[in-house]
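Repro case for the chain-ordering regression, as requested:
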Amino acid sequence: MIAELGLAMLWIAAALACLSLIAGLLFLRNGKAELGALVRPLSVGMGLLTMGAFFLLIWLFVRSDMSVELVARNSNSLKPMIFKVAGTWGNHEGSMLLWLAILCLSGALVALFEKRLREDTLIATLTAQAALSLGFFAFLLFSSNPFNRLPIAPPDGQGLNPLLQDIGLAFHPPTLYLGYVGLSVAFSFAVGALITREVGPAFARAMRPWVLGSWIFLTIGITAGSYWAYYELGWGGWWFWDPVENVSLVPWLAGAALLHSVSVTATRNALRAWTVMLAVIGFSMSMVGTFIVRSGLLTSVHSFAVDPERGAFLLVLMALYIGGALTLFAVRAGAVAEGKKFALMSREGSLVVNNLLLTTILALVLLGTLYPIVAEAMGEKISVGPPYYNKVAGPLALILCLVMVAGPLLNWRRDDGSRLWTRLPPALLAGAVVLFGLVLFGGSVGILPLLGMTVAAIVAVASLAPLWGRNLRRTPLPTWGMVVAHFGVAVCLAGMGAETAFIKEKLVAAAVGDVVKIGRYEVEFRDIKPEAGPNYTSLKAVLIAKTPSGQRILMKPESRMFPGLLGTPPTETNEAALLTRPGGQLYAVLGVPVPSADGQPDRYQLRLWWKPLVWWIWLGGGLIALGGLLSLIGRAQFLAIWRTRRARKAEERFA
Amino acid sequence: MKAKHQRLILAVLAVIGVAGAGVLGASALRDEAAYFRTPVEVKAGAVKVDEAMRLGGMVASGSIERLADGLTIRFVATDGKASLPVEYTGIVPDLFAEESGMVADGRMRADGTFVADRILAKHDERYMPPQMGDMPENAAKMAPAL
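-- result from build under test --
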């Protein structure tokens, strides 16, 4: 019954989307206010129904209802509860339903809370949102129905890939989806504003929280995904330039560009056409991301649905939306292009350079990701790997960081550069100290990590410069947000540089009792023992790591064996052991046993890394997200509403 | 005049940016893009010794052997048409197994062995690299002799 109810809710929501689209279009054509008034409640209804359907699907997974095909294929009654719940979106259909639920929910939130926009622009925005969701309803209902029943229910499900049974991965996709979908709201705002020709500060202010919010989620999603790959895959790398990583990075870059340009539009009413264009690009990139992941078009460690029919469906949707938006943009661009003027040497000028660099990096990453597809269509099989990306993205990112040093110290409209002169020297000094220190004492450091750490030092000091001479208690939250986020970039960059430059690696076959030296650490192989988990058996090594200061710390890398269920082959996973120290992380992976001949004790493969400052990478990512959050809170409408209400109440009390 | 002037500068900057990006991207692609090859192409002489490449194939049944140092493995990668010996020193990824797909970065050694720096296995046990879509399904079982 639950599955049928869920399906019915989806169909009704799709019908509401249809109605909302028609009502909105008629209103925009004829200006009939009573039709326009329908759009808001319809959007709220859609949001509630799709969220309801999504919760029903979760409920089916929780109950392990094996008569539903999706549950039977992706769940198992033996799985821990948290992974049953997470299994809901750990597959194609469920994740598309989650996508749609978030899309409709954000439509409902816009309908309920957005008060700054002109009414007709808001209705145009919601109409665009309805058109978007309609396409995805069609995709879900016609080609990936999550509520499909099986004629005969199997005794138990086929389980979830054991690699995916991990708490990090359980929450990684929804976080990225929240980011992707937030960009869809920005896209709808842009389309709405183009339709009613209201591209200006009000539109930018309405769009900004969605851009910020989505960018925060993308930042968290990418950071968490990087950490997940780092400890779960057992390769010890934090970024592989894998196509699926790239397609999450590309919308992030677009979001970063957009949130800077939207500030210019909101504050200065300049860069209007560009902001609209970026909103279109941002959402296009998140659709490209969804398309690439979902169609299995690319060779990637992540691709898990190789299905041409679904790929074609998504491709058509993508062409429709992006093409439609670009056509609308072409028709209306003339009406929005004229913005306020500014000098090149100004805050706006630096943000233009920021946007140019971000979009250039975006284009180059996208080129590297899509090039193999194009090449294959022309008969050449090619793979583009990390050397390409490091070569093109690395130098540009460093230049971008230098612009980031100067931008916040410039005034809006025009600037004589006086603050640059007074505030930059300490930052440059810090950079020089790091550079000379590394050249003199660092040994042979690659050029990119060397420059990376130098720029990190400059950015770290310069990012605090906007706070100098200010009353810190009176500094507005968005300024704090900017400072924290820029400082986070420096922390992240320093971590990347130090890890790349000074990493130490050791691979050994060790027997119990052996001691392995890695960097300034000594690791003793104390013991190895078998263990049984809820749905796996494992081998656990007991290592004692001796730190340079003589402290002894236990590390337990583990290798897990999952039995094959219902015809799936058995799989093994490596659980790395991490030892986090202020100066970096010690990383240990247990490989397979090496049987020894003639009475020697068995040996085990052991891979050890010393990774200096590696955790700064994710700390930096966290700081960037925190900066976004501070900025979002500082600009939030509810705060302003709350303040006015409090002021009004105080007035009433005295009246 | 001023506004026009400014827009002109912006447009020139944008054009320089786009052109620069294009040149940078094209040159980096020419230098760094590695070819994806299957064993049959390698056997046909498509790659030179020591040229960076990515090899895709199935791990042939019963071919994984471990060397005495405990760290190096040898196995046979096949696409059903040709087979290639592969050597790798390190811990293999979680989903690496006989009769499943694998992709390896590395280079050919003069003796005709592919030496892998890194082996990628896929998150899904049903996975097969799309570039090998034209491979027979039971390729791993019918690997031709080396």
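Ordering looks correct now. Residues 123-127 of chain B have pLDDT under 50 and may be disordered.
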